[in-house]
Amino acid sequence: MQFKDIKGQTVTANHLTEIIDSGRVSHTQLFLGDTASGSLAMAIAYAQYLNCEHRQHYGEAGRDGLRADSCGECPSCKKYRQLSHSDLHLYFPYAATATVKGTGISAADFQGEFRDFLEAKHQLGTLDEWYEFMQIENKQGQIRERDADDIVRTLGMKSYEGGYKVVIIWMAEKMNTQTANKILKSLEEPTPNTLIILVAESSDKMLSTIISRTQLVKIHNTGDNIRVASDEFRTLYVTWMRQLFKLNMASLSAWVDTLHAKSREVQKQFLLFAQEAVRDSFLRNNAGLPSHIDFGDEKFNSSFPAMITERNIEMLNEAFDNALFAIERNAYGKIAFMELSFRISKALKKR
User: Fold this and answer.
1) Concatenated DSSP letters for 195-261?
2) What are the φ and ψ backbone dihedral angles of 40, each rounded to 5 degrees?
3) If 96 and its partner were Cys, which of 63, 66, 101, 289 is the partner (CB 3.0–4.6 Å)?
4) Model confidence band, residue 224 (pLDDT cutoffs 50, 70, 90)
5) pLDDT tens digits, residue range 55-107?
6) How many other CB atoms are found less than 10 A from the CB of residue 21?
């Protein structure tokens, strides 16, 4: 992965290449931000640039704003492009599958699948998409103690090819306490020419002792991963909001069944879209800002925003946040969506 292939992260890329060129590489770093905005891709591009044999520097004019990038053609870059470099070690959440199961499984058992996933998603795939790829949508993945043992062992070895040895831990917040504690000393005192990158979407779920041992690199949301309102989502949303005025249980139950039948990732995408639609209506109704969402229904476009006011916006946001939290933790979808529907209906009546 080269920096030029990652959209919207030019400023951060320039900062990272400057750090490497100046010789100020911190041995343990935390890349914090959405995978869909490029946090994992940036970590891999950073490692590729670090080990590139012929780094490209573009001068003040830059290339598409970039000050420098890896060459993409040297033996190291070619191996990084295929994620097959001997000194690149990837760790990630996983769970037992129909074909790989038992008490002794580790990330090593899923390396092939993970590389296939990264290639299919251009290194921008989300955690839920990874679970779907593994066909474990109803399980919660973890980075386990046996992975910590492997990480410590890997960090204790010399690099195979003479450059930097790189360990990338994706979704580092999925390390349990025992795993995190096992790698603490290695994070603080790795062997020379070692780079450890923790990639996380939320530092709130990480041990403070882990965070304190890292240098933070913030990966900003590019906007490229904002959920686009598909025709299906617009139809689902308009139908849903209209039903919540009437609260016809038969039709509402049928609507809930429709959403429940979809994958967990689609359910989350829809809830995020619906929450954004409510926010869009609030800004239009209360701040006079133009709407960014066309629901394909002129009457709904003109009348619904008036339902979202200062009296109910916080209730609505809280309801969506709670529903998303529940779905992320494998709550039963029908119950979560029905409870959300009742809360929205109650909030709309407080306009």
Assistant:
1) EEEEEES-GGGS-HHHHTTSEEEE----STTSPP--HHHHHHHHHHHHHHHHT-HHHHHHHHHHHHT
2) -70, -45
3) 101
4) very low
5) 999 876 566 789 999 999 999 999 999 999 999 999 999 998 878 887 789 99
6) 14
Could you give phi then psi for residue 48, rounded to 5 degrees? -65, -45
The full 3-state SS of 30-97, as one line of letters, equals EEECCHHHCHHHHHHHHHHHHHCCCCEECCCCCECCECEECCCCCHHHHHHHCCCCCCEEEECCECCC
Residues 6 or more apart whose Cβ sits within 8 Å of residue 100 = 109, 110
Please enumerate in sequence order all residues whose Cβ is within 8 A of that of 185, keeping only pairs 6 or more positions apart, or say none: none
User: What is the number of other CB atoms lying within 10 angstroms of the CB of residue 79?
Assistant: 17
Which 3-state string (H, E, C) describes 277-301? HHHHHHHHHHHCCCCCCCCCCHHHH
- The residue type at 203: S
CA distance 52 to 50: 6
Q: Parallel, antiparallel, or unpaired: how do β-strands 88-91 and 28-32 relate?
A: unpaired
Tokens of 305: 């925003």
The tokens describing 345, both together, are 């209906």
* pTM metric for this prediction: 0.68
